[in-house]
Amino acid sequence: MSEFIIGLTGGIGSGKTTVTNIFAELGIDVIDADIAARIVVEPGSKALAAIKQQFGAEYLDNQGQLNRAKLRSRIFSMPKDKTWLNNLLHPLIRQEILIQIAQATSVYCLLVAPLLLENNLQKLVNRVLVVDVDEANQIARTHARDPSSTAEIKRIIASQMPRAERLSFADDVINNQDVCIKKLRQQVIDLDRKYRSILSSPL
After folding, report:
1. Domain at 5-200: CATH architecture
2. pTM summary value
3. What is the pLDDT of residue 179?
4. What does R_g of the chain's alpha carbons equal in angstroms?
């Protein structure tokens, strides 16, 4: 088990996946809250059955998988449904995250969670690392990978912690504002050295 955990977060479209992949290339185990969220709603799970009962079979696709895009559109327009879903899934996701942390073997591990701070998951980590960009970049980058409308992307941004507040929780910040991949990679390498140095220092 990795006893030193870095919580990596950032708004939608900030570049969390790219940063995470660089850490993984450096030999760091990654626990991804989005993957944990998919595991707990796999076909046959109690959570998926509850979602089907609550919202209807049309929220499952032809393979019996959760239609995440359809559900996401609903919960961002209906706050009561979002609350119901959060109350169902958050305890299950936290449990799955803890299982995966216990299985990590690298010198430290990374817990990647877009809603790390919103869902109070920072209590599980030793340091908070924020990948930071402005809203214009968030919208442009999300458009480039996702068919969502600008209005929907803005709703997602509005549902997340404001940029300034997120940064106030940060122990470390990666600036991904108009930087090339080479400079981004160097920031990750520098942080990796920092974390390894912290762990090798005497108490």
Report:
1. 3-Layer(aba) Sandwich (3.40)
2. 0.88
3. 87
4. 18
